[in-house]
Design goal:
Number of strands: 9
Helix content: 40-55%
Low-confidence stretches: 1-7
Mean pLDDT: 95
Strand order of the largest sheet: 1-4-5-6-7-8-9
Structural class: alpha/beta
Distance between the termini: 48 Å
Length: 354
């Protein structure tokens, strides 16, 4: 069979000294690497100008637009990695699931998943359907120079939550009810979503990304017991499938301080911590065998310059307790963040000893 552009394997860039990749290997880089979740997007005026009149999903599926948005924070802030501009529902959308991103709300699902028949109607994702994303990666790599590109996907649990709830949820009550009331349906759903996520990430790796991050945004809604029973096997499947891909695997969730040990068992090389857990404690909870990413509270960026600097120094000090440390926020950049505060933060972090 002839490979389509989406499934063609591109030679991987050799970036042995890139600080992000060195830290992800558990080694000491030349400087503390720093990038920000949601750096490619809404806090930048150039992003808002570029996105005017273009829907989120359309932007994610327009390669030249995705390329430019991904590059903007690298140019402006001098971060040590680009994160592919995308959204966690993109693979569902291109597979044919009825989902849209509604401004001010988030992902909204036309027909929520509640039964086995609903699960069976979720289509498989084929690599050819990911072509707009992999084409964007092809445009990005020559522009990035020595800056690594991080691929992106939502974890099965977070995707399942949107599908079951029909949209964003504060309490995830339908999701938790389905787990217990119909565990066979739940695990069938998670298996299907793990396959979708795996296809999406493997396509990005084949296209040449230098690392991947699996976002489990809503896993913090679960107890450790429930996480281990209903989520861990499926996240493990995704991450284990990338074990021989030759790229670092980053795993992150919000409010997952009590899950850090279990999330480490899923198989990531780097585990992200939100701002609620100090990084020295995060290193202890993850067993001291993986690199740590994080974890400045995004709201601190609204404080004065001295306060931001003090927090950054504290976090870098705590990060030295882990085999490797990638400086980041404890969640995404908030929309009203001053971009200059991010630029100054990158400059400061680069002066600190790894």
């Amino acid at each position: 069979m002839t490979l389509s552009p989406a499934s063609a394997v591109h030679p991987r860039r050799r970036l042995p000294d890139a600080p992000l990749l060195v830290a992800a290997r558990g080694e000491r880089p030349s400087r503390v690497p720093v990038w920000f979740m949601r750096q490619a997007g809404r806090s930048l005026p150039e992003y808002r100008a570029l996105r005017a009149g273009t829907g989120m999903i359309q932007a994610c599926l327009t390669p030249d637009l995705t390329c430019e948005i991904t590059l903007q924070p690298v140019r402006r802030h001098g971060v040590d990695a680009a994160i592919l501009f995308s959204d966690i529902v993109v693979p569902l959308y291109v597979a044919g699931v009825g989902v849209d991103i509604v401004a001010g709300t988030g992902p909204v699902v036309a027909h929520p998943v509640r039964t086995m028949a609903d699960v069976e109607r979720i289509p498989a994702l084929h690599v050819e359907q990911v072509a707009p994303v992999t084409d964007a990666i092809g445009l990005l790599l020559p522009e990035l120079g020595d800056t690594p590109l991080i691929g992106f996907a939502g974890a099965p649990f977070t995707l399942a939550s949107y599908l079951v709830e029909g949209g964003p949820s504060r309490n995830h009550e339908r999701t938790k009810a389905l787990m217990r009331s119909a565990p066979q349906v739940w695990h069938a759903l998670m298996e299907r979503l793990a396959a979708v996520t795996s296809t999406f990430l493997h396509a990005q790796v084949a296209a040449g990304v230098d690392a991947v991050q699996l976002f489990d945004s809503w896993a913090g809604a679960l107890s450790e017991r429930d996480y281990r029973e209903y989520v861990l096997p499926h996240s493990t499947r995704v991450l284990a499938g990338l074990a021989d891909a030759g790229v670092p695997r980053i795993h992150f969730g919000v409010g997952t301080g009590e899950l850090l040990g279990a999330m480490t068992e899923a198989g990531a090389d780097v585990v992200g911590a939100d701002w609620r857990v100090p990084l020295d404690e995060a290193a202890r909870r993850t067993g001291g065998g993986v690199a740590i990413q994080g974890n400045l509270d995004p709201a601190v960026l609204f404080a004065d310059t001295g306060s931001i600097a003090a927090e950054a120094r504290r976090i870098v000090d705590e990060g030295r307790h882990a085999p490797g440390h990638v400086f980041n926020l404890g969640h995404g950049v908030l929309p009203d963040t001053d971009p200059d505060a991010l630029t100054r933060l990158v400059e400061l972090v680069h002066t600190l000893r790894p």
